[in-house]
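Give me the fold.
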Amino acid sequence: MDPLRNIPGVGNAGQPQRAGQSPAAGGPNFAEVLKSKLEGLKWSAHAQQRLQSRGITLSDRDRQLIDGALKKAAEKGSRNSLFLLRDIGLVVSVQNKTVVTAVDKADLKERVFTEIDSTVILD
């Protein structure tokens, strides 16, 4: 007897799921989740470290703006871009869909950004 079958809400927890099958009615299937992860913006370890050390936090809306900017920059043929979001600067490899580094307001004043071919100013 399978002890998991008797737990309410678990159902057939012990049964393997077939590829392409939704985990729950109306939920995303594996292919959809994988596609969204592969298409989305990635953050380099360096960029993540800079965000944390500089106390930069991004809201869901910020991330949506950045994703939209990535698509626009790619449509225009950008390869490496500086995204300016309020008092935050993000250097983004558009080709690799990766944020390379992040700077805050203090660093924006005294920095020279090289090897970028475009700048996107966000809300």
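The helical segments are 30-39, 45-53, 60-75, 105-110.
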